[in-house]
Amino acid sequence: MTSLTFPVYGLGLHSTSSQLGLSSSDFATETYTKTWNLDRQLSNYLHQYLQEFIQPKTWEKFQFLAVAKGPGSFTSNRIGMVTARTLAQQLNIPLFGISSLAAFAWFKQRNYKINEPIFVQMKASRGQFYGAIYCKNKQKNGLNIILNDTVMMPEDWEKTLRDLNLSCPPLITPSKLGMTASSILELAYYKWQQGKRPHWSEVMPFYGMSVV
Prior knowledge:
The chain is an alpha/beta fold. The chain has two domains: 9-99 and 176-202, 2-Layer Sandwich (Nucleotidyltransferase, domain 5); 101-172, Nucleotidyltransferase, domain 5 (2-Layer Sandwich), CATH 3.30.420. 29% of the residues lie in helices and 27% in strands. It has helices at residues 42-54, 74-91, 100-107, 154-163, 181-193, and strands spanning 9-14, 19-25, 31-37, 62-68, 95-98, 118-123, 129-136, 143-152, 171-172. The strands form two sheets. It has a five-stranded mixed β-sheet, with helices on both faces. It has a four-stranded mixed β-sheet with strand order 8-7-6-9. Strand 4 (62-68), helix 2 (74-91) and strand 5 (95-98) form a beta-alpha-beta unit. Helix 1 (42-54) packs parallel to helix 2. The longest helix has 18 residues, at 74-91. It is globular and about 50 Å long. 42% of the residues are buried.
């Protein structure tokens, strides 16, 4: 990827599953991603790991932040979102909220052709599913939305796939999604390149129904 202004540093945070993921990049020569399996210890270690992760950089180096907005664990999602919004407010920089499902789709996008549907499924509560359908755009710099993130019963999800003539099995998200923090950051960077600069107050979590 080539940045519009060099270097553009971004930081991505993914906390919607049991695995915390952080990713930073200048989108030219340097990308670094790290994960921690924290489960319910997220609130105890998130700020410590953030401080350690960005070193030797300072917070002022970052031009934007990106955060997974869900779906996923209600508590972990809330903690990550509050942290990202607070940082963006304090640093006065844009904050991009990226769907956990979109991030997983982008993480797997190399297995798909342009305009080929990528449908992602995540377990929700009470026997329901989170589902979304995307496809790579022609510019290969992001995803087009065919079906936005939603929660539905299995029979409704299956009917949706049948109506769209999607016969291949969906991508089923794993329990640990922190590894896709780099995808959160990449998708946000594409929006940055398009001139988008969302204010932190615009970014809201998508809770749907929690898996925990």
